DNA sequence: CAAGGCACTGAAACTGAGTATCGTCCGCAT
DNA sequence: ATGCGGACGATACTCAGTTTCAGTGCCTTG
């Protein structure tokens, strides 16, 4: 359902005033006055002064959740990557509003914080989804956390780039590229590990300066293999 | 320098009251009264009612920043992993306070939001650090974002596990395990710093399942050394 | 000892966000 | 016409956070 005309007027008045005077210097009374309604009415349409900048985040989150549960992708990470496109689509389809909000959020800490919290909700949703998908495989919780964080980070990176370029280009190729990055990065973690004794899951990480001679490296590794910690 | 006795009394009063009545039901007046000082004094010691729960986050962030700039690790991701240990150390060294805060944050959305914002500051610091390190190599910004997000996610995962277990065990083995996960995941994304000879500082990070036979490992490493990417 | 400076505190007034309550008005169906 | 429900305005209230001013103890310096 479309937003009511009053909500619309309030949002426009708020954005205009935030732009002219700044966020902190604008009171809810000012917004209501410009929209031609009372202060009470403002709080009937928006739970807080911040929410007027981030309307329908709840609806978008619900949409993403629905997309996830309906997903037919064959791996968790692909499903989540698929779902995150919805978010970017929403931003891209009203570039005007997104850009205005981006400039505002860049200047006002309170709004930046609000946005960070919103993003965390998506990340949590992804984490829970991937966690359920992976079940109780070893390190499932850890992998879920990492995947969710990576997908969100990729999205944020692409979105910021698009916003900083004033929305001039199509952001989806960049998103696909970034998500491909994530998917390939995590592909080797998707394989189910063989279950067996616990030691089978130990990993060894060896780091050397590239300038070291191959012999030095081989010696060090040989030593390490002979004395597992 | 240690916190002043007044700050200490205020913090204890606040935590006690939050525990008894709940966060929203406790006013700053209540806290100040129990601590035996005036409301003014409260705000002289803490900028907000929330901050009494998260004292020295600024100091910790500065400490992490200092550790990063002083780092001698040979790759960005290792430096960041190194830095994140400081954070977990801080949590672990007063487990009592951490646990009390954890229970509180779990119940009060406002505090949860505050914590999310704090975490985002670390992530941003890491992102900028890795970004600078990677310079203008292709996808540097994207990789920086992903690495920062992953390291933070790994830390959060370990911390949450530790807190949920009431701080019963040493969290650092789990952290090391999680960070190794991240390092191995990103090993193919690492690049060297560009000082003079680009190749001189290249590193190789190899990860193997502990169940692999030494011969298999040696073969793989030999192959890798002969064909540097 | 005295005078002035400084850090800490209390008191009080103020702004503004967010909540709760009440009365009113308008549209709409029976 | 009567009843009803939803949206609005007005008002008062709580509380976080800011600002200002004044008092007090302490420490230095003459």
CATH superfamily of the largest domain in chain A: Tetracycline Repressor, domain 2
In N-to-C order, the SSE pattern of chain A is: HHHHHHHHHEH
What is the oligomer described by this structure? homodimer
> How would you sum up the global shape of chain A?
elongated
Write down the CATH class of the largest domain in chain A.
Mainly Alpha
CATH topology of the largest domain in chain A, which one?
Answer: Tetracycline Repressor, domain 2
Largest interface (CB < 8 Å): A-B, 47 and 53 residues
- Which structural class matches the secondary elements of chain A? mainly alpha
What is the beta-strand fraction of chain A? under 5%
Distance between the termini of chain A: 62 Å
Radius of gyration of chain A: 24 Å
What is the helical fraction of chain A, as a range of percent? 55-70%
Number of self-contained structural domains of chain A: 2
Question: Sheet with the most strands of chain A?
Answer: none
Number of helices of chain A: 10
């Amino acid at each position: 359902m479309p937003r009511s005309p009053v909500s619309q007027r309030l949002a426009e008045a708020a954005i205009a005033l935030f732009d002219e005077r700044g966020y902190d210097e604008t009171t809810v009374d000012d917004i209501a006055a410009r929209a031609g309604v009372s202060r009470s009415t403002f709080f009937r349409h928006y739970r807080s002064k911040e929410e007027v900048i981030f309307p329908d985040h709840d609806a978008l989150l619900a949409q993403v959740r629905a997309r996830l549960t309906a997903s037919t992708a064959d791996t968790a990470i692909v499903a989540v990557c698929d779902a995150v496109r919805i978010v970017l689509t929403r931003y891209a389809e009203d570039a005007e509003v997104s850009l205005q909000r981006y400039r505002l959020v860049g200047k006002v800490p309170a709004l930046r914080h609000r946005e960070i919290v919103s993003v965390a909700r998506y990340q949590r949703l992804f984490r829970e989804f991937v966690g359920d998908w992976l079940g109780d495989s070893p390190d499932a919780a850890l992998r879920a956390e990492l995947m969710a964080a990576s997908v969100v980070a990729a999205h944020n990176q692409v979105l910021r780039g698009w916003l900083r370029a004033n929305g001039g280009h199509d952001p989806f190729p960049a998103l696909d590229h970034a998500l491909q990055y994530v998917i390939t990065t995590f592909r080797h973690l998707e394989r189910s590990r063989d279950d067996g004794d616990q030691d089978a899951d130990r990993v060894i990480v060896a780091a050397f300066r590239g300038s070291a001679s191959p012999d030095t490296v081989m010696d060090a590794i040989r030593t390490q293999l002979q004395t597992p910690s």
